[in-house]
Amino acid sequence: MRKTYKSMSMNKKTLPFAAAFLSAALFSCSQQPSKPAVEPSLKAAVGDRFTVGAAASALQMAVPDTQAVRILKTHFNSIVAENCMKCEVIHPFEATYNFAGGDSIVTFAQENNMEMIGHCLLWHSQMAPWFCVDSLGNNVSPDVLRQRIKSHIHTIVGRYKGKVHGWDVCNEIIVEDGSFRKSPLFEILGTEFVYDALQFAHEADPDAELYLNDYGMTAPGRRDAYLALIDSIKVRGLRLDAIGMQGHMGMDYPQVEEFEQSMLAFAAKGVGVMVTEWDMSILPTVTQSANISDVAEARKEFDPYWPNAVPDSVARVWNDRMGAFWALFVKHSDILKRVTAWGVTDAASWKNDFPVPGRHDEPLLFDRQGQPKPFVKDFITNELNK
Questions:
Q1: Which of 143, 269, 311, 361 is buried deepest, with most CB atoms within 10 A?
Q2: What is the pLDDT of residue 127?
Q3: In b/e form, how buried is each residue of 261-282, taking b as 16+ CB within 10 angstroms?
């Protein structure tokens, strides 16, 4: 049976009431306060391509409304502990842990809905002096070191279980020629320390992502060694989610094409790729190393611009190079999990003191006044105006 519906057309009696209602509604809408303008942000412009992060210090977390904190909240959706989770800070003595700094950054990440990255569980630099030696200063036995590694990783990863998205498990373990760095870890345990560390981290938090992280990944020897290491990790059935390609760059290294080649090589192995510790020194290159013990004597030619401004011609070259790498990251967002700058603004960058103590660098995405560099500003503007 056909259903019939009452007509929705207005008759002469209902028309005046409808007109009055419409007029009132329009007046009400016109009186609604306008929404405040949302500050354009890098994370909004990047969208869901990859997460974009920065390294932060425990000191920055201690003051809630600093320039750095405001930039972190506005522009980044990922954060990594710059120093406070490194062994010498978080585990200074065998029976002593110092979680204050780590706790503050993890809390900040949770409160601001940011992806928290733990850095780093094992690293030859900034390792607590006691970690690999006995009371006489001699290397401990393999069994003792393995137990110390297990306790160290289980304690730290276990404390932050469910709060840290991923961990740099081993940091800077291979040198340019492809051989393992002759650290105490390697001298005592050989390559087994890598497999042990991955296993212990997975035991402590089965849901946390696990990474290997290193600088100079465009060096063929280092890249190929990591490719082989990925295969051996897979053979052992261990978890490895991504390779962190540290982005410590200079005005003359690396080439964009070289960086791209390594990105694609790692992705072809079936692991994620991350650009970590990204910065580009605007000053003359002293060393391509990111090993913090490789410091150089302070000389004027290594800090040529201070106290004057960097010449516009130099700043343009820097901006064009950074923009080219950023375009590369966007191009390969299908394989890229994260891009993390190693610091928030130029004022607090580690490059101000490395490899020449006391020099003044401008290597980051935000300048000393907290303003985005031109390539960042252009990207945000172009993306949000699409």
A1: 361
A2: 97
A3: ebbebbbebebbbbbbbbbbbb
Residues shown for the chain: 386
- Tell me the C-alpha to C-alpha distance, in Å, between residue 121 and each of 11, 41, 186, 252: 77, 31, 15, 31
The answer to whether residue 277 is catalytic is yes
Catalytic-role residue among 115, 209, 277, 362 = 277
Angle among Cα 147, 152, 153 to the nearest 5 degrees reads 100
Q: Reduce the secondary structure of 39-93 to three states and give it as a string.
A: CCCHHHHHCCCCEEEEEECHHHHHCCCCHHHHHHHHHCCEEEECCCCCHHHHCCE
Q: Check 172, 257, 260, 301 and give the catalytic one.
A: 172
Q: Which two tokens stand for residue 275?
A: 């650009």
58: buried, middle or exposed (CB in 10 Å: 19+, 13-18, 0-12)? Answer: buried
For residues 339 and 361, give the distance between their C-alpha atoms in angstroms, rounded to a whole number. Answer: 21
- Measured at the CA of 155, the angle between CA 151 and CA 157, to 5 degrees, comes to 120
DSSP summary character for residue 181:
P
Catalytic residue status for 172 = yes
- CA 341 to CA 274: how far, in whole Å? 11
Helix, strand, coil abundance in the chain, percent, nearest 5: 40, 15, 40
CB 124 within 8 A of CB 172: yes
Residue type, 339: V
Q: What is the pLDDT of residues 151-163, one digit of tens each?
A: 999 999 999 999 9
Residue 339's DSSP bridge partners are 52, 275
Which residues of the chain fall below pLDDT 50? 1-33, 35-36
> What pLDDT does 354 receive?
79
pTM as predicted = 0.86
User: What's the CA gap between 177 and 184, in Å, rounded?
Assistant: 19
How far is Cα 175 from Cα 225, in angstroms, rounded to an integer? 9
Q: Taking each helix axis from N to C terminus, what angle separates 256-268 and 312-331, rounded to the nearest 10 degrees?
A: 20
